[in-house]
Amino acid sequence: MKRFLCIVALFLAPVFLFVGLFAGAIYASGEWRTEEEIAARVAAGEPAFLGLAYRDNTRYYKHLVANELGADLLVLGTSRSMQFHSEFFTTDSFYNAGGGAGYVNEFQYFLEQLDEDKLPSTLIMVLDQNFFNGAWVGTGSMPEFFDYNHYEFSWKSALPEAIRGWAQGKFTLRGAYSAHPNVYGMAAIGRGSGYNADGSYCYGSLLDHPETGTDVGFHDTYDRILKGIDRFEFGEYVHEPSTYAIEALLAFCNDHEIEVVLIVPPYAPSVYERMVESGNYGYFDWIMPILTELCEPYGYEVYDFSYMPDTLDEEYIDGYHGSDRVYARLALHLAEESETLAGLIDTDYLNAALAPSSSPLRLAQ
């Protein structure tokens, strides 16, 4: 029996060593750390770059940090709001809570669950066009409460994912074991993608190697437009329940003395042009008139950046996510047009970053 156990041990030793290497890599990367811990570091003013690969707790994390910081200037929206960076603004009290809302009624849920003294004085709300499309809203329906979708770290699921990711070249063991102490998560280690301390998002290696993306040449986006699926559903009129949600949201902001700037975010120019040419997105024409009417009683501002011809297709991550450069230009437009934000936007920084002689705008951890 003793001899048998020795043989089994020798046979299994390489397996345990192999698995142990990846367990160590996960540990070294900080993938296992809690959102509460990282949020506390951010709130304390410490550098922290968070890019988790094996669970998505974006909404939970962004709400934690927003409630810790109580930033005077808050950005709220989906992933299409994440390219507003603190460097764009003159205030030191800024946080980008992009990812904190997935449906239009979740904006109010997010704000209602902040402590009263943590509500912002100025709110930039980025309202995706598909929020107003009944065909898209109907695919998931607007939630009746705010669901954090919180997932705990699990070694059981993380280990096979890490081995698979390594085999696919998503990270190296050397990179994981030599992780910077202020960088947390396997996505941050492997791809350099994740959330900066100000809440903005960095796409990491995708910026240097766009050919590795999932929407090269916008082929995936064009396919969605052709089929009318996945946020590009066809629609003629605005979904009325969405307007009711915004009406209630604006009233909430007014009651809590929050200045609001509404922004409809950009598509890549060729994508927007294809959508308009298709004739299947008539509801676009109704968004601005309705938002303008809803904002008018409170003096809130609303801007439509759906089509930005002063940007280039190659400045977009995919068909509907603009890069840092796109949002830098958008911020410059706001500096010229917005009374609410004019004094808060650092035009000197933005102009210098976008100057032809400057190096490519790159904002990361």
- N- to C-terminal distance: 56 Å
Give the % helix.
40-55%
Shape: globular
What would you report as the Rg, rounded to the nearest angstrom? Answer: 22 Å
The topology string of helices and strands comes to HHEHEEHEHHHEHEEHHHEHHEEEHH
Please mark out the parts with pLDDT under 50 across 5 or more consecutive residues, or reply none: none
Q: Please count the beta strands (DSSP E, at least 2 residues each).
A: 11
Computed structural class: alpha/beta
What is the mean predicted local confidence, pLDDT? Answer: 91
Helical stretch tally = 15
The fraction of residues in strands falls at 5-15%
- Largest sheet descriptor: 5 strands, parallel
Question: Strand order within the widest sheet?
Answer: 3-2-4-8-9
Organism: Candidatus Allofournierella merdipullorum
Protein name: D-alanyl-lipoteichoic acid biosynthesis protein DltD
Would you kindly provide a written description of the structure presented here, covering whatever features stand out?
- The strands form 4 sheets. A 5-stranded parallel sheet has the order 3-2-4-8-9, with helices on one face. The protein has a two-stranded parallel ribbon with strand order 1-5. Strands 6-7 form a two-stranded antiparallel sheet.
- Helix 11 (about 240-255) packs parallel to helix 13.
- Helices cover about 45% and strands about 10% of the residues.
- A hairpin with a 5-residue loop joins strand 6 and strand 7 (about 200).
- The longest helix has 28 residues, at about 1-30.
- With about 375 residues, the chain is of the alpha/beta class.
- It contains 15 helices and 11 strands.
- It is globular and about 80 Å long.
